[in-house]
Specification:
This protein has 210 residues and is an alpha/beta fold. It has one domain (2-184): Rossmann fold, CATH 3.40.50. Helices cover 34% and strands 20% of the residues. It is built from six helices and seven strands. It has helices spanning 21-33, 68-79, 112-120, 142-146, 152-175, 177-184; strands at residues 2-6, 39-41, 44-51, 54-61, 86-92, 100-103, 128-133. Strands 2-3-4-1-5-7-6 form a seven-stranded mixed sheet, sandwiched between helices. Helix 1 (21-33) packs across helix 5, helix 2 (68-79) runs parallel beside helix 3 (112-120) and helix 5 (152-175) packs antiparallel against helix 6 (177-184). The longest helix has 24 residues, at 152-175. It is globular.
Length: 210
Amino acid sequence: MKLIVGLGNPGKEYEQTRHNIGYCVVDALAQRWQIEVHKNRFSGRTGGGQIKGLSVLLLKPTTYMNLSGRSVREAVAFYKLSPADLLVVADDLALPLGRLRFRPQGSAGGHNGLTSIIQELGGDDAFARLRMGIDAAVGARMVGHVLGTFSPEEQELINQAIRRAADAVECWLTDGVDKAMNTFNRPDEPLNERKPREPGSEPTGPDGGM
């Protein structure tokens, strides 16, 4: 069994926000694999099937981001999974918009969802994670930024990134994390990144224009 977890917050008000990019990738995989992620299990919504000869479970924790570990722990314990069987998809403020970064293990890097998972797994951080860049806008408040939606221009790029992320997850399933890293952690990836603002052109206002 392989467990693929997309992190996000439940509720209409959080749909399509930057912090919910993990949910979006799981939704894209579900559509690609024709899996319905609708069962209420493990403090989340799940759906499973046989993908490329492997048993796969998709999971979207519904505990809110900072308690995501509870959902993951329940699923890992039920199926008696090892860290090698787990992949977590999460957003990353430190990466440019749409950039992908696979890692076989590591710290939470300040991400509340990953922090919760590591804590609930007894401090074990030896599971794969796929981080997706959501950009850190100049002058933006962090909470307002991550819980904000993408602009129409950004959404086109994010849609491309979600498709690449789904490809990356399939690569992890069939060829392992090293192959996924070598294939998708490319700094020369074509991204239509926004040009840096000229000095003095930063938006004004309490939320930095976000």
